[in-house]
Input
Amino acid sequence: MRKIVEENKDLVVKIGNRYEISRPLALKLWNVLVSMLTEEGGSVKEEVRVEYASPEMVIVSVACTVRVKEREVRYCEIGEAYKHEGKGDTLARTAYTRAMKRLLERMVGEDFINQVILKLYPEGVKEVPATEKQKKLIRTLVQEGKITKEMVDEVLKGETTLNQALKENTLTFSQAKKLIDMALGRWVS
Output
């Protein structure tokens, strides 16, 4: 799937100050994932819903139920788009693409799309701080012993401690996501 993003660099678009995949690229990635699952004898059911719509913003959810043999797993992600981003007449498509990107990454288990885009456009992916919800969950997972020092060292590369990163708000969204995924057994190296 990484190769598809790399081979379709022209389908990566700049929105505001960051690069994101376009709807055609999201659909290509989705088709590859569905093909891989059906080759293994599985089936995929996708559901798209507009959760909220106004002239200023649109929120779309994309849910996916994957069935392989007797096992069934359901994933759901949300995407949002705002008029102030300059996407006036394409808010629903932008929200859908963002939801689909998050869904693909969640199903694969890593933020591979952002990693590939960062390699293609090193100046273009602005890393944002971890959300308060992520930080709260990380603190809970640390208390429960589900986040180990080894995990923290792997994610933060020994540059800082987790406590310091949380206190100084230097823990990034993707670092927090990786820690949470590792702690919950969703991270595949």
Observations:
- The chain has two domains: 2-120, 132-183.
- The CA atoms of residues 138 and 144 lie 10 Å apart.
- DSSP finds eight helices and five strands in the chain.
